[in-house]
Every structure is written in structure tokens, then in C-alpha cells.
Amino acid sequence: xxxxxxxxxxxxxxxxxxxxxxxxxxxxxxxxxxxxxxxxxxxxxxxxxxxxxxxxxxxxxxxxxxxxxxxxxxxxxxxxxxxxxxxxxxxxxxxxxxxxxxxxxxxxxxxxxxxxxxxxxxxxxxxxxxxxxxxxxxxxxxxxxxxxxxxxxxxxxxxxxxxxxxxxxxxxxxxxxxxxxxxxxxxxxxxxxxxxxxxxxxxxxxxxxxxxxxxxxxxxxxxxxxxxxxxxxxxxxxxxxxxxxxxxxxxxxxxxxxxxxxxxxxxxxxxxxxxxxxxxxxxxxxxxxxxxxxxxxxxxxxxxxxxxxxxxxxxxxxxxxxxxxxxxxxxxxxxxxxxxxxxxxxxxxxxxxxxxxxxxxxxxxxxxxxxxxxxxxxxxxxxxxxxxxxxxxxxxxxxxxxxxxxxxxxxx
Length: 412
What we know:
The protein is of the alpha/beta class. The protein is 30% helix and 16% strand. It has eleven helices and 14 strands. It has helices at residues 85-93, 112-119, 139-152, 167-173, 181-199, 257-266, 277-293, 340-352, 366-383, 396-400, 408-411; strands spanning 68-72, 98-101, 127-133, 158-162, 207-210, 215-217, 227-228, 233-234, 249-253, 269-272, 302-311, 328-330, 333-338, 358-363. The chain has an eight-stranded parallel beta barrel with strand order 1-2-3-4-9-10-11-14, surrounded by eight helices. A two-stranded antiparallel ribbon has the order 5-6. Helix 5 (181-199) runs parallel beside helix 6 (257-266). The chain is globular and about 60 Å long. The two termini are 28 Å apart. The relative contact order is 0.17. Mean pLDDT is 85; it is low at 1-63.
């Protein structure tokens, strides 16, 4: 259903936005010595995060290739945002690039974006990437909520777009019938395009905040998005100033052909599934080549291998079919079962060979496996000089070595 076209707003102070609802539409030689154990983060108040990347800060200069590590913090059946807090602190303490939190209209559960907005003040540097569905939701509200998360986290927000394709999900809203996966992902791409125009509808210095004259914003530095998609249209401007990162980082799966087409065109971070180093390298090369054909710069993409990890407490060799032999393929994707040391060997091997830029790891048992991942695997990779000892910046784009995008309205 087309969205009503709002008139240019002049908000006094950007209010916190909410997720759309149905009512609103090189390294040194490897060492075999055990790494130091990282203590469990305590629930004490964290140190306030550093200020976000200033709008006038120039794009980051080219940096040496880095290993990127991310984790999922999904907790089935969780009923409180605080159920995710220990996991988020572990990811933060482990210097991971970002964490993801899944969401879907197909299953009951907390709203991922709202949960991560709650966790933002309790974490310092780790990126926060919720799944936010684009089907049946209003693009204007989705982009405003994500921009707000970027402000709340001081530049650490990402977005993992999701879609809805079932009749049951469509009945929750009662606005239109279910659509195919291909139609849903095509619409998701349009939502991303509209969101970027809306994020850029405020120039970085549009806010004046001149108390003597009573002027809050320079009208000449607000822009209309004027975007028309196949199922919606938006005009703008947004009700939230341009995010600290310019655009929150977009993370997308690139496995089946339909989702891969979306990721190639729109994602900053592409997640691929592979059960071996050679397969991962081939997938990485393919998606970069396809991105180049689509007019994108392959060097501006990050390709991460995504796999489930089930870590034993000891440092024994991985089970047959796992570890150095590669993860085992299951109905839910590649699955690694073994010790933290063997996982470090796998990560180091794939990364050193240039197969991928890093890994997105999904703990089979969130509390147990994330602790062993951080205290075991990550600590060993740091001990060997393969993984960083501190975050390179304060924003998610800085972690990933991605430049802050230029304003689309100024470069058109």
C-alpha cells in the first residue's frame, strides 16, 4: 500500500523512533602455548563509549587487511532484554566487530531492534545488528528506527534486512496477501534504497540549534527523498538527523540465489556458508565478481563465512568431519563441533589463505559457546597476532574498515 507523503517536518529535537508496527504504516609464528584466559565481564556499569564519528571527519584511509569476527546472540524463549546482556558484554569484551540478533514475524519473541537499543548503553564498541523485516512494515518508520539506534549507540548500528513470505505473517497485518520470496526481496532492496535517501535527507550540518534566533534547522539543508517503489512511496525528509555513520552498515546472507541477488546489490557485509576453505574462497570470489558487474567496488565489501559452532570444554581434536577438515553440512548450514583451539586453527587457515575476510559465528548453546569462543578461540588468535588487541575505532564502519558514505543528495 503506498505510504502517505508527509510534509517537510521541523522537529524540535529528534525523538526516539520505534520499529514499525501493524498500526503504522605478518603475524608472528604460531605459538602452541595456551592463551591467557579472559575473565567473565562483570555486571558493573561500562565505561561510556567514545563520541561518534563527527560529520566533518573525512573517510577512513585504506588500512591493512584485518580479520573480522562477529557472533549471533540469539536466545530462544528469551522474555527480557537483559537475557541478552551477558552475551552482548562478552562480544564487546572479546573485541568482536559486531553481534547480530534475529527477528521474524513468523515466531514469537522480543523485537530485536528494541532489544539492541536497550543494550547500546551497556556496551562500548561492539556493533549492533538487528534483523528488521521490510515486508508489511513502513519503510519510513524502519529507517527512522535504525537511524535512532545509530544515534543511541554512537555509530555502532547495522541492519540485517529480513522478509515475510507466509500467509500467517500476512494475516498478522491484514493489509495484503503473502508474496513470494523473490517479490519480498525485490521490495527489500527498494526499502534499502529509500532508507539511504531518507538517512541523507538531512545534511550533516543541517542542525543549527540557534537559541537566540529560535532556529533549529537550516531548511535549505533538508532534502526530499521522493522515492517510489513497487508497493510504497516516501517523500521525506526523515524525522531523524543523518546517522553518525551516514548509513548504518547493511549485513545480508548471500546463500540462495534470491537473497544473494539482494546482497550483491545492497549489502556492505555478505555472509556465505561453506564447509571448506576452497569452497569459501570460490564463493567469496563469485560474490565479489558479481558485485563488480553490478557497478560496485569489490574492495568496499566484507565477505564473512557463517557457521554454527559447538565448542567442547577441552582442547581435544575436533570430531571427524570438523575442525581442520571443515565444518559438517547440516540442514541448518555448516556446523563446527570441536575444541576452541581447533576452531582458531580453522579461522586462521581460511583467513591466511584469503578465502574470507572473517567469520560470523552462531553459538549452538549461546552462554556456553560464546564464553569459550571469547576466552579460548579469540584469545588464542590474539596471542598469535592474528586478531586485534583493541577496536580500531568507535563506529562499526571503523571496525570493518568501511568509509563513511557521501550524502546521496549532494553527489547526485
